[in-house]
Amino acid sequence: MTKLTNYIAYVNPETGFDQIGHFDIERKVIQPLSFLSGTPVKNLYQVIEAGSPDKLVAAASPIPADSVKILPTISGRDVLAVGKNYMEHAKEFNSSGYDSSDKVDRPSHPVIFTKRATSIIAHGEDILLHEDFTSTADYEGEIGVIVGKPGFRIKEQDAWEYVWGYTIINDVTARERQRDHKQFFIGKSADTYCPIVSNANPNLVDNIFLMVLGSYRGAEGGPPKDPTGPDICKWRAATGFNDRRSHLSYTRAPLRHLRRSDPSTRRCAGHGNTSWRGDRKEASSLPKTW
Amino acid sequence: MGIGRKPPVFLKPGDEISISVTGLGTLTNQIAQLGASNSTLSRINSASAFELTNATKTASNSADLTMINGKPIFYEKIGSGSENLVFAHGLGGTKDYWAPLISELSLADSATLHVYDFEGHGLSPTHPLSQLSIESLATDLEGIFRIGDISTAAPATLFAHSMSCLVAIKFTLDHPGLVKKLVLLAPPPSPLPEASRNIFLARATLARIKGMAAIVDAAVGSTTSDFSKRNNPLAIAAARLSLLGQDPEAYAKACHALASATTRLEVEKLDVDTVIVTGEEDKFSTPFLCEEYSKSIKSSRFQVVKNVGHWLVFEDAKGVAAAVRGS
To answer: What is the average pLDDT value for chain B, to the nearest integer?
Structure first.
């Protein structure tokens, strides 16, 4: 039997409760999951805390994914992110005219920022443009790295032990806000600016290469435009510049990853990209109040 | 700001910073010594994504609960007689199921009674990761014996109802010398037949989706006698209250435990005095089944209580008391 570890968050149509299932990408069906006790799995945090897929079992019949409301695979906490973490993207960003964080392409230290938890939405939900807030909304495809356990003073060589799995994030940004306010936070945390896909998978950990394909389709219709084409990302690049281990190691210091928060690490050049993730909560409506 | 001073000041261990605002008071903090423990990490480490199921009925996790096998269990010791009596309630029951029988037999006057709510039932919480089974409940029963100081020196009489009869039989077989007498009220068949398994699994699903209200009519209707329904509304109300007072998720877990009782218990190996009592109209623990049990147990007695079903203590406490007494 295939391992039921492609965890998807959705609303159980019968109970109305949030639940976790296994998402069969090919067949587009969700296999509801429960713990061995029969208690349904509520969220990804529980999956992570349970610690082993052996503690989860299939419960009830599979349901078509398009028949339920799907949720972001993980939510409730701020997303800790690393900017400009590989050369091509750093160059691209620095030459765009929207980078006020540095005068050179390659930063001497990783750029660490957060996206507010309230900006998280699910796959398929609409992104609000916030037209009174920005006229330069942009997208970036990111691989979200989900940190599976709390840590403090994590050594760089131990960083992998803290990585639980991966998900997909769209790091939507109001570019002129990012530029004008110097800090990235406001431009990246508007409501709906952090779409997270519904599933997360711990089994990509050992993949050396992941393919990230970014594309967008203009409002006028037509085929999707793919400005960058598929990008193969080196998963374990040797340089500290492109190495998530060092990013974990950097952010560990004062922030310490909240258990089960999800740093996303930026990768692959072009508009189809990846960024980081971290912590915390709270409600605000940035564009309105700021 | 320290950098505003000349020369600039940077914080070091032992420094204290106080910030006062008119009308708000003062915020004061000290810089910790180097190597001090990180309380944020401890806080995060102790946080959990899980909440205990059925934990809201007790004032706090520890108020009236006793830790048994690492689980908080509602356990009470009543009386101080030299005889030990232990009571294990059934699916949908609580320790209070036994109150009418204890009263009828005046048991508290002469013996030490050990009553408890098994994991997830009554006032005992259960953790979502904790799997209930006949085996886990037997292990918890062993914990009750331990906490109740019941040893082979003064073995106990063990009363069990319904599902807990399987637990009691398993426990007695696994722990020779701790039980001197078994009182089994309405024991289920062992192994549980496929049809019964499916009923309990369906009941678990229904409880999870729609709550206890959705199962109570069927659960009480099919398990109480027509006589009780006509003449004993208090018994029906007691059985309904007992079920409606359960947490649906915890109840569902116990249904799974019963449905998983597919291993046949070697009742013929029981070598303690055993009294088996069931209701005339019990369709689950039928008089026929109980008679078969009785035949296979060396030292046993079997008695049927007339006009009652599966909730026999609620339906006719006097009748059950007489059957237990053997009169």
So the answer is: 95
Region label for A181, one of left (φ > 0), alpha (ψ between -120 and 50) or beta (otherwise) = alpha
Contact between chains at A258 and B45 (C-beta distance less than 8 A) = no
- Note if the bond before B191 is cis, omega within 30 degrees: yes
Separation CA B128–CA B134 (nearest Å): 17
Task: Answer whether A43 sits within 8 Å of B204, measured CB to CB.
Answer: no
| Residues facing A285 on adjacent strands | none
pLDDT digits (tens, 9 = 90+) for B7-32: 998 999 999 999 999 999 999 999 99
Q: Specify the pairing of strand A264-265 against strand A79-83.
A: parallel
AA letter at B110: S
Within 202-221 of B, beta carbons closer than 8 Å to A belong to: 204-205, 208-209
Q: Most B CBs within 10 Å: which of A39, A44, A47, A259, as the mutation test of the B interface?
A: A39
Which residue in the set A37, A256, A260 is minimally distant from B49, CB to CB?
Answer: A260
> What are the chain B neighbours of A150 within 8 Å (beta carbons)?
41, 44-45
Query: For residue B44, which residues of chain A lie inside 8 Å, CB to CB?
Result: 150, 256, 258-259
SS3 A217: coil
Model pTM score:
0.84
pLDDT at B301 over 50: yes
Contact status of B24 with chain A (Cβ, < 8 Å): no
CA atoms in the 13 A half-sphere facing the CB of A97: 2
Half-sphere exposure of A183 (CA within 13 A, CB side): 6
Mean pLDDT rounded to a whole number for chain A: 75
Q: Residue A250, Cβ neighbours under 10 Å: how many?
A: 16
More confident residue, A202 or A282: A202
* Percent of chain A residues topping a pLDDT of 90: 41
Task: Measure CB to CB from residue B40 to each of A39, A46, A256 and give the nearest one.
Answer: A256
**B179-185 and B156-161 beta bridge pairing:** parallel
- Tens digits of residue pLDDT in B49-87: 999 999 988 876 566 899 999 999 999 999 988 899 999
Alpha-helical (H) ranges within chain B are: 39-46, 99-104, 134-147, 163-174, 194-210, 213-221, 226-231, 233-244, 248-259, 287-296, 312-315, 317-325
Is the Cβ–Cβ distance between A261 and A147 less than 8 Å?
A: yes
Closest CA to A269 of A156, A118, A105: A105
Cβ neighbours of B53 in A, within 8 Å = 39
Question: Which chain A residues are closer than 8 Å to B48 by Cβ?
Answer: 49
- Minimal C-alpha gap between A53 and chain B (Å): 12
- Residue A65 has which token pair? 């994914």
